[in-house]
Design brief:
Elements lengths: L4 H4 L4 E4 L22 H15 L4 E5 L8 H10 L3 E6 L18 H21 L3 E4 L4 E2 L7 H18 L5 E5 L9 E2 L4 H11 L3 E6 L9 H10 L3 E6 L16 H13 L10 E4 L8 H20 L3 H9 L3 H12 L4 H10 L6 H8 L1 H8 L11
Parallel strand pairs: 1-2, 1-10, 2-3, 3-4, 4-6, 6-8, 8-9, 9-10
Antiparallel strand pairs: 5-7
Bound molecules: alpha-D-psicofuranose and manganese (II) ion.
The site of alpha-D-psicofuranose has 9 residues, from loops.
C-alpha cells in the first residue's frame, strides 16, 4: 500500500446532491425518514460522507432541483461544512415545452428557452466557482419519421455553440450521452462518438461526460475511457451500476471487475491527478437502501477498485504484452484485481485520522437517528419527476 499511497491520496469523488433525496421508479417512490428537505440538508449529508471517508470533498448540484436565491450564501454554507460546490447539472427534461426536444427542438423558441436555462446555470457557476456545466439531453424520438434526425444535429450544434460561447475562463461544458430512454427509437446524443464530434467542433472547453450506466450490455467501456483520455476529451464520469438499463445503482455493485478495468484505464492515462481535469462524479439514486450509507459504500467502492488498479504491475504487464504472453498478461491484471485491499485501506484511513470502517462509524455516529428526529415537517427532496 505504501507504494500507491501518494496516488491514492489524489482520489477525490464528487457526490450528487440528488442521491440524498428520495427517488424511485415510475412505479413507486419510497420515502425514507431523515431525507433532506432542502439543498442545505443535502450538503450536510454529503459532508458526513466526506468526514467519514476523506474521499468526497465536493457535491454536484442539479438546477432547478437545488435552486436557491443566493448561491454565494450556499457556497459559504458548503465551505462551513468542509465541502465545495461542484458540477452544475442542467435540466431540460422536465418542462412541458421540452416534450419534443430542448437544444435540438425544431422550434427556435424552445431551443432558446433551453439555451437560456444553460445561461442560468453558467450564472450559478460564476457565483459558486464551479468549473463544469453538465448537459444531458433527453432529446430524441420514438418512431421512425417522427423527427428529422439530421436537422436536429445541426440545431444541437448551433445551440451548444451559443452555450459554449458564454463559458468564462476556466469554465467547461461536459456533454453526456445515453443510448436510449426516455426516447426509444432515436436519441440525439446517444453515444460517445456523437458527444465527441460536437465537443470537437465546439473547442477545447467542451468535453465528453461518460455515465457508466449509459451503454448497451457488453460494451467495452474501458476502451471508450482509454480512447477519450488519449484524445484529451474525457471531462467527467457519472459513476453508477447497471444490470439492465440506466439502473443508477451503487457504483461497483453490479460488476466490480468492470469498475476495476475502468479505473485501470484512468490510472493508465494519468487521470487521477487534478491536472488531468477528469471529474470523478457519482450519478446514483438510492431507491431502497439508506442514502448516506449508500453514498459511503459508493465512494469506498471507487477507492477499492482504484487501489487494485494502482497495484497492476505495469512493467511486467508491458513486458508480457510485448512478448505475446497472453495468459501471463491476463494473470497480471487478475492478480491485481483479486488483491484484497480492504485491510490496507483501513490502515490508510487511520493514518489520516479517519475511521478504519466508515460504514460502521456511520452506524455508531447517531447521525441517522438525529436527522430522523430533526427533519420533521416540510417537503422531502425528491428527484422531481
Ligand atoms: C440521465 O439519465 C442522467 O444520467 C443525467 O446525468 C441526469 O442529469 C441524471 O441522470 C439525473 O439523475
Ligand atoms: Mn448521468
Amino acid at each position: 500500500m505504501d507504494d500507491i499511497a501518494a496516488e491514492l491520496d489524489q482520489l477525490a469523488i464528487e457526490v450528487p446532491s440528488w442521491a440524498y433525496g428520495n427517488s424511485g421508479t415510475r412505479f413507486k417512490v419510497f420515502a425514507t425518514p431523515g431525507t433532506p428537505r432542502t439543498v442545505q440538508e443535502k450538503i450536510a449529508d454529503a459532508a458526513m460522507v466526506h468526514r467519514l471517508t476523506g474521499l468526497a470533498p465536493s457535491v454536484a448540484l442539479h438546477i432547478p432541483w437545488d435552486k436557491v436565491d443566493d448561491y454565494g450564501i450556499l457556497s459559504s454554507y458548503a465551505a462551513d461544512h468542509g465541502m465545495e460546490l461542484g458540477t452544475i447539472n442542467s435540466n431540460t427534461f422536465q418542462d412541458d415545452d421540452y416534450k419534443f426536444g430542448s437544444l435540438t427542438h425544431s422550434d427556435a423558441a424552445v431551443r432558446n428557452k433551453a439555451i437560456d436555462h444553460m445561461y442560468e446555470c453558467i450564472e450559478v457557476m460564476n457565483v459558486t466557482g464551479s468549473r463544469d456545466l453538465k448537459i444531458w439531453l433527453a432529446d430524441g424520438s420514438n418512431y421512425p419519421g417522427q423527427a428529422d434526425m439530421r436537422s436536429r444535429q445541426d440545431w444541437l450544434q448551433d445551440s451548444l455553440r451559443k452555450v459554449y460561447d458564454r463559458l468564462g475562463d476556466g469554465q467547461r461544458l461536459v456533454l453526456e450521452y445515453k443510448f436510449f430512454e426516455p426516447a426509444f427509437y432515436h436519441t440525439d446524443v446517444p453515444d460517445w462518438g456523437t458527444s465527441y464530434a460536437h465537443c470537437l467542433q465546439l473547442g477545447e472547453k467542451a468535453l465528453v461526460c461518460l455515465d457508466t450506466g449509459h451503454h448497451a450490455p457488453g460494451t467495452n467501456i474501458e476502451f471508450i475511457v482509454a480512447q477519450l483520455i488519449r484524445l484529451g476529451k474525457l471531462g467527467s464520469f457519472d459513476f453508477n451500476s447497471r444490470f439492465y438499463a440506466d439502473d443508477d445503482l451503487i457504483v461497483g455493485a453490479a460488476d466490480p471487475f468492470q469498475l476495476f478495468r475502468i479505473m485501470a484505464e484512468v490510472v493508465r492515462g494519468d487521470g487521477l491527478s487534478p491536472e488531468s481535469g477528469i471529474a470523478l462524479m457519482l450519478d446514483q439514486c438510492h431507491n431502497l437502501e439508506e442514502k448516506i450509507p449508500g453514498q459511503i459504500r459508493s465512494v469506498l467502492n471507487v477507492q477499492e477498485m482504484t487501489a487494485r488498479a494502482l497495484l497492476i504491475d505495469r512493467t511486467a504487464l508491458t513486458a508480457a504484452q510485448e512478448s505475446g504472453d497472453v495468459l501471463g498478461a491476463n494473470a497480471i491484471m487478475m492478480d491485481a484485481f483479486y488483491t484484497d485491499v480492504r485491510p490496507g485501506l483501513a490502515q490508510w484511513r487511520e493514518t489520516k485520522g479517519l475511521p478504519a470502517d466508515p460504514m460502521e462509524a456511520y452506524r455508531a455516529s447517531g447521525y441517522q437517528d438525529r436527522i430522523n428526529t430533526d427533519r420533521q415537517g416540510g417537503q422531502q427532496a425528491g428527484w422531481g419527476a
